[in-house]
Task: structure prediction
Amino acid sequence: MLQGLGEVDEGDDHSWKKLEKDIIEATAENISQKLSKLTEIVWEKVINRLAMESTGKEKKKIIEKKGIKRSHESGGPSSVGEEKEDYCLVSKQKRQKTSANQKKQKTGNKKEKKKTKTRTKRNPYIGKNPIVEFTALGLEPPPDMPEEFKNRIKTLGGTEINLVIQKFLQVTDLNPSQGRLLMPSNQLRSLCLNEDEQEKCMTGVGVQAVLVEPSLEVSNIHLNRWLVGSSYSYVLNSQWNEVVKKHAGGLKPMVVVQVWSFRVGPKSKLGFALIKLRDGKMVV
Result:
C-alpha cells in the first residue's frame, strides 16, 4: 500500500480516490482476519469448557471430533449450535440408557424375589429335632408295638423286643437308587448287637436279619453301617427296594415309622419289625 503512494499524483483526484479505496479494503481485510482468528479462539475455549464439564470420555471424544472440527472448518456461529446440539443429544442418550438399565435391574430383582417366594415350601419336620416334632404329633414317648406285631413275632419264637428308631421317612429312603432305609446313629433309641454282629457292621460286611413287614409278611433284610456325610449311620438294605414296592401305597415321604429289633430261635438270630404309625403332615 505504501508503494502505491509514489504513484499518486497530487492533482489527480482519481488517483487519491483509488488510494483511499485501497486503504479501506486493506483495513477491512485486516479486521476480518482478526475477527476470524478471535472467533476461532473463542469457540475453541467454549468447546474445551464443555468437554471438561462432560462426565464421560465418550462425550468428550464426540465434542472434539464433531464440534472442534466443524468450528475450524466453517468458522461460523452455526458450528457451535450444531456442536451443542451433538453434546445435548449424547447426554440425553446416556441418561436414557442409564435409566433403561436401572429399570431392567429393578425388574430382574423383582423376578428373583418372586422366584424365591414361589419356591416349594419345605416340610416343617425337615432339619428339626424329631423328638420335638413327635411330641407335637402325640408320638413322644413312642407308642408301644401293636399287638398284631407282638403276636407275629411270638409265632416266630421271637424275644427281646426293643425299639430301634422312630423316624419320618425321607425321599432318599424311598429312592431305588439309594436302596436303603437310613437309621442315623444320633436318632437310635437302642440297637443291641452282639460282638460278632458289631464287628461285621464295622467292617462293612453287614448282618443278615429277619424282617416283619408292615403287612406282617416275613422276609429278609440286611443290616449294615455306612458313612453318610460326615458321620456313620446304620442302614437296612439289600431287599429294601422290594419292601418299598410291596408297600408303595403306605410308605411315602414323611410317613412316621418305627423299627423294632428282636431275637429269634436258639441261635438268637437278629430280626426287625417295620411298623407304619401314621402319615406325616405335608405342607401344600
